[in-house]
Fold ABC-F family ATP-binding cassette domain-containing protein.
Amino acid sequence: MAHLLGAEALHLEFPTKVVFDSVTVGINQGDRVGIVGRNGDGKSSLMKMLAGVLEPDSGRVTRRSDVTVGVLSQTDSFDPTWTVGQAIVGDREEYEWASDPKIRDVINGLVRDFPWHAPLSDLSGGQLRRVSLARLLVGDWDILALDEPTNHLDVEAITWLAQHINRRWPGNTGGLLVVTHDRWFLDEVCNMTWEVHDRILEPFEGGYAAYILQRVERDRMAASSEAKRQNLMRKELAWLRRGAPARTAKPKFRIEAANQLIANEPPLRNSIELAQMATSRLGKDVVDLIEVGVTYSQGTPKEHTVFSDVTWRIAPGERTGILGVNGAGKSTLLNLVTGELKPTSGKVKRGKTVVVATLSQQLNELAEFGRDRVSEVIARHRTNYVAGGKEMSPSQMLERLGFTSAQLQTPVEDLSGGQKRRLQLLLILLEEPNVLILDEPSNDLDTDMLAAMEDLLDSWPGTLLVVSHDRYFLERVTDQQYAVIDGEFRHLPGGVDEYLKLSAARSDEMVSASGNPTSSGGAATENPNALTGAEAHAAKKELSRIERRLTRIDSEEKKLHAQMAEHATDFDKVAVLDAKLSELATEKDELELTWLELSEATN
């Protein structure tokens, strides 16, 4: 594959920290790279160096003279006097950009409902983020470098973005670098994963699920002493393999390896035991919303009904995810549960022993601690906590959430956003509520810390209600999902996939009702690569053939390894066997790539 961009011996150092020692990497046509690692380990810095935005202290970045790189940073900078349209398509005439299907698709996917001629100064931070992403995507780039592109996007927009990237470049062309904590997105768009840690970069094949598998295998083969980390990764791998239907369509050679690793791994949660514990702490009654409705007058004679006639009986130990577009009424619904809001109609019944706590998007509750050290703050709360049947001290809980002993002496106001988020969760858990509401809990957390939070919540024996645009987190910690759609509260037996289908159908109905196939210059998304029935049938037959051949290659590789061990002192024989192994590896790489392309085309 053609080389696009390379970096040799990159060294980057800040006044208090060496970020990278000597990193050498390359990006070829068709590479879709997800960059993961702990917050502060250099993910964004690496991407900026590769994109030419940040100069390394030593080493060099090279790229072909004709290669273009489009960069989405975490900050959006616009002239506030620009309109939405100017920011996205510049001064191009409407007939020019409106005739481009790619531009219409981007507008439809990200800013369909935005006022086209409104000044940017009227937009919220989340809306500006969408405009910034749309401005980048309407351009033609050989490489896209995206830093947290899913921030401020809802589930529908994240799904659209993944589909857009997967069909953006024809065949095995173009390149992608993406830094994100959204693990579903990483799994959906990436065929390579780079983990940055301890001043180095470690490459892995495949998206997030494949990365987790290889990481567990790496730690096991190295006989790592990080027992807790291994167990946590195995647990996540078990969920990847068992819990999400969309992930079962993996090559068989990976499924077999995963099955061997998780053969004795117990289920993520003992639902019966947790339900019993929740009932003992809560009683049989939690919160019942019975035929409730909420209507706002909005200060005008015209009233606005958020929803009406909603009945929701929340059970002890229930773990529910709530979906819906911004403004649909998710927060209003949760405010009824907490008691902060009274319904306009219907009634809310609350059990006598119910204690509700909310992990909000803001960190205002930590402001009162200021210069207090973390250890001082937690000392004012409980001296022990029971998680997973084991008694733990607050310090042990903090360690489980990624704090080091040295960080216990850090003033609260000096903590990073992710550290504050974890401390916020711990303080809530130490109060021992029996109903916990999480409002966008994945903000500011890297993938490892999200896994640690999920592991902690697995053993939490209460009722859990989650609002999140992070699909992976939502599916991982909840057992059922509901959606607030058009004033109704609907159960989703098919989970997030069912919600996306309902949302798409609703959008189509709105477009049909308007009698206009476009909205704000946008257009309904078309898939130019869709297969005919005969093509799909042929593609599925080819998939089966590739899977059979990959199985045979695995068997042949094992035999060659055994022969190499048997003839270890015969260097000529070993050289011949090694050459055969290299041939198999090359064939395997080509087959895996073809498998992935065919799999995407037939889905």
Summary: Residues 533-566 form the longest helix (34 residues).
